[in-house]
Write a structure and sequence with these properties.
This protein has 103 residues and is mainly alpha-helical. The protein has one domain. It contains three helices and no strands. α1 packs antiparallel against α2. The longest helix is centred in the C-terminal third of the chain and has 42 residues.
Length: 103
């Protein structure tokens, strides 16, 4: 699964970073890729939780699952805030542009 994800994500990442001149697009795309990585990390934690080793390594298992959840939701919230900030800036700048203001 990881190799399929990398085979799809790496060429798309290279293409987006070469073609896009907007910094926020690159930042949002990076956060989306990080979110996918943390989803895989959470899947690893879920697999580890269901294995026989989870009974002997409860602290490691709880650290994997909790850190994966934290990083997944942190990137998700950052992505939402960045997306919302983009629309907030657009809502301010478009009326100024339509009025002919340059500054």
């Amino acid at each position: 699964m990881m190799s399929i994800m990398l085979a799809i994500t790496v060429p798309i990442t290279i293409y987006v970073f070469k073609k896009s001149k907007f910094r926020w697009v690159k930042m949002m795309f990076t956060l989306c890729v990080l979110q996918n990585v943390f989803t895989l990390y959470l899947g690893f934690g879920d697999f580890y939780e269901q294995s026989k080793h989870s009974e002997t390594n409860t602290i490691a298992m709880s650290f994997i699952v909790s850190s994966a959840c934290f990083f997944f939701f942190m990137t998700t919230i950052l992505l939402y805030w960045l997306f919302g900030f983009k629309y907030w800036v657009i809502s301010i700048e478009v009326p100024r542009f339509l009025k002919g203001e340059t500054e």
